[in-house]
Write a structure and sequence with these properties.
This protein is mainly α. It is built from four helices and no strands. The chain has one domain.
Length: 121
């Protein structure tokens, strides 16, 4: 029963992290807001990711981080020619917040996996 409770809390943390990433994209993020996103990302990683899901989780996180960075750069280049300055800034904030949300969990799970690999040697 405890595992089910942890999965629900992890699921809620994931949903809350995504929603906060979007909402905070509309404003200038403060340090405490970034810290909340990071903590939620750690909670998601700790409660939801099993040993069988490590590779898929890390791959998805790397894709999010690279994709968000690339898309943010593309928005910077296209904002003026397309006249989407305000929208571009908002989307860049959302993308940055998503990275703040997923990166801590990715680091934690990657370190755990490196430890497991080293331990088995």
């Amino acid at each position: 029963m405890a595992k089910q409770s942890g999965n629900m809390m992890g699921s809620y943390a994931f949903i809350l992290g995504i929603l906060l990433s979007v909402v905070l994209g509309f404003m200038q993020a403060q340090a405490w807001m970034v810290a909340v996103l990071a903590i939620l990302g750690l909670v998601v990683a700790l409660l939801n990711i099993t040993d069988k899901e490590v590779h898929a989780y890390l791959l998805a996180n790397v894709a999010i981080m690279i994709g968000a960075g690339t898309f943010s750069s593309m928005l910077t280049v296209l904002a003026t020619p397309l006249g989407i300055g305000n929208i571009s800034t908002m989307l860049q904030g959302i993308l940055g917040n998503l990275v703040f949300f997923v990166a801590p969990g990715a680091v934690l799970i990657a370190l755990k996996e490196v430890y497991n690999i080293a331990r088995d040697q």
